[in-house]
Design a protein that fits this description.
The structure holds 2 protein chains of 2 kinds. Chain A is mainly alpha-helical. Chain A has helices at residues 5-24, 64-67, 81-87, 105-115, 117-120, 138-142, 162-165, 170-179, 190-203, 221-224, 244-252, 314-326, 338-341, 345-354, 370-382; strands at residues 37-38, 41-42, 56-57, 60-61, 102-104, 207-208, 211-212, 218-220, 235-236, 261-262, 280-283, 292-293. A two-stranded antiparallel sheet of chain A has the order 1-2. Chain A has a two-stranded antiparallel sheet with strand order 3-4. In chain A, strands 5-8 form a two-stranded antiparallel ribbon. Chain A is globular. Chain B has helices at residues 7-29, 44-47, 142-145, 175-179, 192-196, 224-227, 397-404, and strands spanning 79-80, 92-93, 112-113, 127-132, 138-141, 151-158, 182-191, 207-212, 219-223, 232-237, 240-241, 251-253, 266-272, 287-288, 294-295, 304-309, 324-332, 338-344, 352-353, 355-357, 366-373, 380-388, 392-393, 417-420, 426-432. Chain B contains 7 helices and 25 strands. By secondary structure, chain B is α+β, with helices and mostly antiparallel strands. Helices cover 12% and strands 29% of the residues of chain B. Chain B folds into 3 domains: 7-53; 83-285, Sulfite Oxidase, Chain A, domain 2; 304-429, Immunoglobulin-like, CATH 2.60.40. Chains A and B meet through helix 1, helix 3, helix 8, strand 9 and helix 11 of A and strand 1, strand 5, helix 5, strand 8 and strand 9 of B.
Amino acid sequence: MFKLDRKLIISASVAVTMAVLTVGCMQNGAEPTGVSSVNGKVTIDGGVIYPVSNDKTGPYYVNPQVAADAPEIFNGRAPTANEIKAWDKDVMPDGTGLPEGSGSVEDGEEIYEAKCVMCHGDFGSGGGGYPSLSKGNGEELQKTLTNNRWKDPQADGPTRVFGSYWPQVSTMWWYIRDGMPHPFSKSLTNDQVYALTAYMLNINEIIVDGEEVDDEYVLDREKFLKIKMPNVNGFEPKIDGPNGLDNVRKFYANAANFGAQNLNQGAVRCMKDCQKESANTKRIQGAGISAFTPPMSTQRDLPKSDKAEKKIDPKAVYANTCSMCHSAFLSPGSAEWAGYTAKGMDKVYANGIHGTEGGMPAKGGSDLSDANFKLVVDYLVHGK
Amino acid sequence: MDNKKSNQEIDLNKRDFFRKTAALSVTAIAGTSLISSNARADDPAIMHHVPWGQKWGDPITKNLYGIPSAYEHTVTRRYTKLLASGNFRASIAVTPIHESMGIITPNGLFFSRSHGGVAHVDPNEYRLMIHGLLEKPIVLTLEQLKKYPSVTRTHFIECPANGGQEWRGPQFNSVQFAKGFMSSAEWTGVYLKTILADLGLKPEAQWMLAEGSDNSEMGRSVPIDKVLDDAMIVWGQNGEALRPEQGYPVRLLLPGWEGNLMVKWLKRLEFATEPWYAKEETSKYTALKPTGIAVQHFYANEVNSTVTSPSPEIPWTNLKDGDIVEIEGLAWSGMGTITNVDLSLDGGKNYVEAKLKGLVLPKSWTRWSYMHTYKKGETLLLTSRAIDDAGYIQPTIDQEVGVMGVESVYHRNAVETWEVTATGEINHVQIRS
């Protein structure tokens, strides 16, 4: 019914390409070779593709009844308008998909303190096994992106956080709405998402339309669309607009753009005396990283019996599982626990075992038995 | 009973005898490397009845879905806290590629990476919606999806951060962690272009959003070129349903491209004129260069290779002088088919050609091999270098760092080197100028 016109263009140009190749060395039935351009357009990723020829793509046979001119199969049904509305909720930089709503920095901070700080740290500083959300003034930190620790390993590296690195604020709004808080995603209202986004702008000291995002600032859709992130021009190739895909194709057609070496673009396959005099062997510093779980082994022995419930070391469980969030908040033996233990340890255990809306996942996401989990809770509350 | 020993007891006595013989022989030959066949102890593993040979094995009714031998329990994915985020819900467990055979990873060892944990999708409630710039948007159940004509292809999937911890120098003395952020499987599904053939894709559609139904609603923008070339929607992995870790029941497969693009637990494909700027194509999966500009939409995993044997996990400490040993490894390219692998024994100063072996498929793991005569006490620097049919050759570290710097995190494919010490231990090193 509806023809896929571009597919036909590819098929036609493949025939031309393959004809050229056939003159060279192809024999009937031989495997089609990879080609790096189709119909004058280079491949999008700088690699080769394997168009169908002689009923094969590369070494694979294809059913010509499907491949030649795809049969018009429609196995599903049309979605209803409501169904599309329910799922089509992505938010694009131009505001497509961004609903109306508003939220203040003040409200955002309150939500952050209740639902986010335990993982992302005070003012988005990170440190709890989850990403940092701010390291200070985004515009200033954007200048650190040229930092590189090749020549001087002790130098400061680049700071890649929301304010200094992310090109679009729509990404933040969309991800908070769909992916946060991490253990309870898709639980925030649109106004809460606006508020949290406002708070993100605040702690990254982003200027919106000439205006400072202070505690009283209220973000809404109209203001949102005026936000320009400091690093909006920090990426290549340029993917926007009608030339976006052509820009991508051109970028990857040149190996030098992405640190690659291509023999068709002047690279050499050196076999003898390929190194400079200054070549030297760089070794792993210190002991390197070898804290693997399970420990590295190639032994063929029988696993130790795990029938009896293993005795756990609460301190080790804390270090591996709980510390990601609990090092920043309600850390082992912290005075903050007093506010929770006042209601009795049974309540604390229950909250831990079942999880809380405040961000505690059930059993911290572990698969411990209740008895073992309580030992970990005891360790967290008492610090020993 | 007392004066009539059971057969079993006699067997036990025999065993004691052989044990003693073996012990005496070992004492006698200690320090000797040349043993005549007469002087050598008989191997108890041959001389004795083995326990599993004298009693019933398991009935076929046990383990109706098979599991590996209990003795293989150390062949597993592994993780490290260094790479842990989000309470191991935004983390990675990597494949023991030193134990890999051929070009297929068993499903239970396939590396596992998620951004909001491994989702467990009810296949009865599974829906795939394809909409946007189409004349005929569509909703498919799993059953309806599987009715499309299927294709089966062998491709690796690689996290573009494979090796990404080692831009500034080697860190992991382990091939599992240095190169195991990848696995390979035979995938079964349908070409996306086959489904689109009847949906009336509009000419202005340049980009496709692929979105997962998991906790993180992982999404990525895919250019139309790939959609209409070899993009697949897959439900089969090595002859069975996808594992939950791989997106059960359905994931996107973009042969050769970043694993992150191959959205798991796939629920929605939308076509539009502009890309989406999803979180995992901006804040992450972008490669920062020393210019301060980051490469975005860095799709294909470039040509790469590694020596898997020997490796830090598989050392040469038991080799004897004159042993002929196979140096073996993997080569792969997301940009085409492997054509050559070169091997250097001196860290990249001089190369010889290694031999490809087995099936050589596009955008697939490829096995390579080189036979070496081991000289006791020799020290070597083993460096492999792969070439693909798009003309790409693995860069030296100096070449790659010269353009990309050391802050890219992603897409590091410079040659890697194992040092073979005089005692046959293997160390991960880097050769730089």
